[in-house]
Design goal:
eight-stranded mixed β-sheet, 14 helices, 20% strand
Length: 460
């Protein structure tokens, strides 16, 4: 199969009817033709086709923690008390367990409509912090899990050096994360040799946060990246919690986003994950920089982080995308819906993120998240257009939530109407069907390995 016919499809220029799509052996689209004649006899025909959604922020191993931290572990439970539980869980993972958990997650992400993921990968060493003989061992587990399940991957090894601002010593729980700029560069070079980059695989870097690196080490890391690939993506956690902002102010005399913009050339290669606590001036400055803001509404709500300054950012034409972060849930529509609802609750208005001639919130949310996610992934996944990957979702046109809907009403219903089963039936990446009628082609085997892995993790 190297083509399909969609009765209606969402293209970069908008909705189109009778669309023929063709792709090459690499899975890149070579033709996208609206208003086509009858399809080729052997090609599948679908009713409603959407581009696949990139997920710009994930910690795969945390999928196995879902549901295990929903109890009060401190008198003032917060991100910081949750982090202690996460560190303890991270000590239990070995390569086989990580691969099993990541494979399960990637199957679930595909079923949910994510066809690419940016993996913010920071468990590098063996249990207790001892280095593996191959420093890329755990990173390779993620590459192999993505390849086996059909998930497009942007792998972002994380640099993590300190336990807090001012080069504070790391805790025992951070021992598996620790490395240096030299270690990071060697990892990228080794990964490129072991698993060369292609349209489905890209490498970048992720300085964990301003509290986990110093100004000098961050500059050294960026200089090293320029020798590997000057166009590689750069992701960083920033301004997620108020304590982080306060600590940054105490150490640097500036807020995190303010300090980063003042000291580094933040541009379209950067993804600022969360950026929850910004002033209006910071928000506008990030929009002007071309950087992507990585929003993870389900995790940000779960951790009690706060609400992003969405209206100011939209008015400044800022670029953003969505991620599943801690993977307590995986649902494209839920992340988009939660982002809009957070703004409604904050401003006590409806349809606050609407844009365009007809004011469709669903269309704006979906297309903006697609744009930002593709930029953050630094891969050809920006939609159904020539040169992009043949990554696509088929919606169930017969579902009661979609019956009789056309155009943007389909997207509004996809995001905001939820009754019973999900609306995605089939998912394709690189021109190959990965999900058929809601079931991943390898689901049974992957889930069996995940159940065995979880039983080990829960008794360790």
């Amino acid at each position: 199969m190297n083509g399909l016919f969609a009765k209606t499809a969402l293209l970069p220029q908008g909705w189109a009817n009778n669309v023929t799509l063709e792709w090459n052996a690499e899975g890149l689209l070579t033709a996208v033709l609206p208003d086509s004649a009858q399809p080729q006899p052997a090609w599948p025909v679908v009713d409603v086709l959407l581009p696949g959604m990139p997920n710009l922020h994930s910690h795969a191993f945390q999928r196995a923690m879902a549901g295990l931290t929903e109890y009060r572990s401190a008198s003032q439970d917060s991100f910081w008390s949750w982090r202690t539980l996460m560190y303890a869980f991270a000590q239990k993972l070995d390569p086989d367990l990580l691969k099993a958990v990541a494979s399960q997650l990637y199957v679930e992400l595909l079923q949910a409509g994510y066809t690419s993921v940016c993996e913010f990968h920071y468990i590098h060493h063996d249990i207790g912090g001892l280095p593996y003989s191959d420093q890329t061992l755990l990173a390779q587990c993620l590459v192999e899990a993505a390849e086996a399940t059909g998930m497009g991957l942007t792998l972002l090894p994380v640099m993590y050096q300190y336990g807090g601002f001012g080069n504070a010593p790391p805790s025992n729980g951070q021992a598996r994360f620790l490395n240096s700029p030299d270690w990071m560069l060697n990892t990228l070079i080794t990964l490129q040799r072991q698993h060369p980059q292609h349209s489905g695989l890209r490498y970048g870097i992720a300085p964990h946060s301003l509290r986990a690196v110093s100004q000098a080490s961050l500059q050294e890391l960026l200089d090293s990246l320029a020798t590997f690939n000057p166009d590689a993506p750069i992701h960083i956690h920033i301004a997620e919690q108020t304590k982080e902002v306060d600590d940054c102010m105490a150490h640097y005399g500036q807020r995190p986003v303010q300090w980063l913009l003042n000291h580094f050339n933040v541009d379209s290669r950067w993804c600022l994950v969360h950026a929850t606590h910004m002033t209006d001036a910071e928000t506008t400055a990030v929009a002007r920089s071309g950087a992507v803001v990585g929003l993870c509404p389900s995790t940000e709500a779960n951790l009690g982080d706060g609400i992003f300054n969405g209206i100011t950012y939209k008015n400044a034409n800022g670029v953003w995308g969505i991620g599943s972060d801690s993977n307590i849930m995986v649902d494209v529509a839920e992340e988009l819906r939660s982002y809009e609802y957070s703004q409604r609750l904050l401003h006590r208005q409806r349809n606050v993120l609407a844009a365009g001639a007809d004011g469709s919130v669903g269309h704006h949310l979906f297309t903006e998240a697609l744009k930002g996610g593709a930029r953050a992934a630094a891969r050809p996944v920006a939609g159904l257009a020539v040169g992009q990957r043949a990554d696509a979702l088929v919606l169930d046109a017969g579902h009661p939530d979609l019956t009789g809907k056309k155009g943007n009403a389909l997207l509004d219903s996809f995001v905001f109407a939820r009754h019973g089963n999900g609306l995605i039936t089939d998912v394709m990446t690189a021109g190959q069907w990965r999900v058929r009628q809601g079931t991943h082609v390898q689901q049974a085997a992957v889930t069996d390995r995940y159940r065995k892995a979880l039983s080990i993790l829960l008794t360790a």
